[in-house]
Amino acid sequence: MSGQNVFDYQQEIVRLRELFSFDFVGVALVQSVELRSVMKWVFATGNRSNRFRRIVLQTGKGVAGQVFKTGKPFLVEDAEKMLGRKDLYNYPIVVAEGLKSFGAIPLYKYNCVKGVLLVGYRTEKKLTPNDFAEFQQLIGPGFGPFYSKEMIGQ
């Protein structure tokens, strides 16, 4: 990252992970590739390996792709039950990191989704709707240059 980026994503996701005792926290950002947008996981903490760096998502695919497409938070309390064991391959970050309970929120910049913040546990039913709401409140209006549209009432 360039020196002008004063917000330290890695430091912030480490802080969030410690604050909520998440097993994994990741940030996927939009990467422009010849007039098409793809998302890549750029920052992570609590990761089992660096496989997350090789995951490239098209709009609508995977956790980040769905949140990017809909612009809405996405909560899964029990991955196997809610997504189905056979469909888990459509969620590469979930498989790569062994996530069983997770949530993701869109990160907006200039009224467009530019990133996704994913938090999760490797234990099912550990991220409850109340915990996810509390996490979203804590993120509040800003995450570096991004903001959560839901939090500013739009």
Give a description of the structure.
- By secondary structure, the chain is of the alpha+beta class.
- It is 28% helix and 29% strand.
- The chain has one domain (9-143): 2-Layer Sandwich (Beta-Lactamase).
- It has a 6-stranded antiparallel beta sheet, sandwiched between helices.
- It is globular, with a radius of gyration of 14 Å.
- Mean pLDDT is 85; it is low at 1-5.
Q: Structural class of the helices, strands and pairings?
A: alpha+beta
Mean pLDDT: 85
Largest sheet: 6 strands, antiparallel
Shape: globular
Order of strands, main sheet, comes to: 3-2-1-6-5-4
Number of distinct helices: 5
Measure the end-to-end span.
30 Å
Poorly predicted runs of 5 or more residues: 1-5
Overall number of strands: 6
CATH class, anyone?
Alpha Beta
Helix content: 25-40%
In total, how many domains does the architecture comprise?
A: 1
Q: Beta-strand percentage?
A: 25-35%
Architecture in CATH?
2-Layer Sandwich
- CATH homologous superfamily placement: GAF domain
- H and E string: HEEEHEHHEEH
Query: What is the fold named in CATH at topology level?
Result: Beta-Lactamase
